[in-house]
């Protein structure tokens, strides 16, 4: 954030678009913009005191952080192999991950929608997994051929 902002050329050529410097710069601009907006929102919240939304955001980020760390500990065998975790601790971590999943479950849709991903990018299963997995949707349509 302390570096000067990269400048995007007004005329984008094919070689510019394929340039690693341009690609890095454009993502850097986007990242700086997101951080500036996030910092402004946090400053607003702090100016008005800790609000309920801020407390919820803080607890949700804490839950996600805990899940991230514990899932890495659970999935990476090197923590067991090199003695950072005992087998008993590994079992405890697995149980805690299951508990954290159940805590996160009620908030899953809100978290996914917070990314602002358009519906067109989701597969049909994201909207109605029962209909998507029904027998009629997996059977070939009449007149359709299956090629192997």
From TrEMBL:
Superkingdom: Eukaryota
Tagged with keyword Oxidoreductase: yes
SUPFAM superfamilies cross-referenced by the UniProt entry: Acyl-CoA dehydrogenase C-terminal domain-like
Acyl-CoA oxidase C-terminal domain: residues covered: 53-121
Keywords: Oxidoreductase
Pfam families, per database record: ACOX
Keyword Heme assigned: no
Recorded family membership: Belongs to the acyl-CoA oxidase family.
Name the UniProt record assigns to this protein: Acyl-CoA oxidase C-terminal domain-containing protein
